[in-house]
Amino acid sequence: MKLSRVGVVGAGQLGRMLALAGYPLGLRCVFLDRSASAPAAQVAPILTGELEDPVQLSALAAASDVLTFDWENISGSALAPLEKLTKVRPPRAALEVSQDRLAEKALFSRLRIPVAAHAGVDNKEDLVKAARQLGLPGVLKTRRMGYDGKGQFVLRGPAQIDEAWSAIGGPGLIYEKFQEFSREISIVGARAATGQTVFYPLSSNVHGGGILHYSMAPFANPKLERTARIYLKRVMNALSYIGVLTIEFFVVKGRLIASEMAPRVHNSGHWTIEGCVTSQFENHLRAICDLPLGSTRTLGHTAMINFLGTMPDVERLLGVTGLAYHDYGKEPRPGRKLGHCTILKGRVTERDSALKDALKWIKWT
Predict the structure, then answer these.
(1) Cα distances (Å, whole numbers) of residue 183 to 137, 186, 256
(2) How far apart are CA 304 and CA 298, in angstroms?
(3) Under CATH, to which class is 183-359 assigned?
(4) Which CATH fold would you assign to the domain 5-88?
(5) Pair 16, 37: CB distance under 8 Å
(6) What is the CATH number of domain 117-177?
(7) In Å, what is the CA distance from 168 to each residue of 129, 139, 161, 176?
(8) pLDDT digits (tens, 9 = 90+) for 263-307
């Protein structure tokens, strides 16, 4: 049976870009979101309601040949009944493991993927013990619902333990030894139900306050890229994965340390829309709809810049040659991802020069 109707839980900018990538392939997306004015609702039909509303989820499944999500914090228990109604891709197991930092690190460790030294924390005594055993500095994080730097506290010394506990203390935390990294990178790949797998080149990512500010791709390091592909493929195979999967890494003394994974299209892969033959959004749809995966060949050297909190002057940015502008149609709010731009050039030096010019006109608020 041809899979052409795609149900998407969540209708943010990721869903919006999925819908736009689906139209040329004859694929049609329908969304479920709390707001009828969500970004994807501007380009595709939407059901409105809570994301875990069983009635609305069942209605979404009934209207879909395959179900996916653009938001990874929906519970696996909410999706489980839908597996009797339609295909759910990526698999629920991938969603569930990515929602718990401790379970995620356990999976990485089982697959021989290096991670930071860490320990589960459920009370202040656990934190004191973890800081003593693993050392400082370290990062106390919520195990669940943390994204874009939320639910984290960096401990520089033992005097901050009380402050950290006051800020986010409670059961269900994790303490990680701080990584003195030289760079943050990510790898995006896609796997089909047939086992066909494709990988995008590494991107180098620059964050501020835990939120991605900009990415540059491809990040040319053949040794690290080979290793990252091996690690990503291990996770995909272990989970019988279908769709796009991303792993973010720290580069520590020339070695990859896995930070976290995302079972969906990813912010650090937005550059692929203009920068590759087939974008991450198109390949996610191809994978979940049982279509052959597309080429991930790059078309040049790319930079992607997030618009956070406020939108830049579109006329100034479009004056940068080779720049593509994406407005998600959101209301401005501090720290909110409102859009992005992509710069594509034939040479690294040209890209870096254009990136420098574009950054003059962008403020992250």
Answers:
(1) 18, 10, 10
(2) 14
(3) alpha beta
(4) Rossmann fold (3.40.50)
(5) no
(6) 3.30.1490.20
(7) 17, 11, 11, 15
(8) 999 999 999 999 999 999 999 999 999 999 999 999 999 999 999
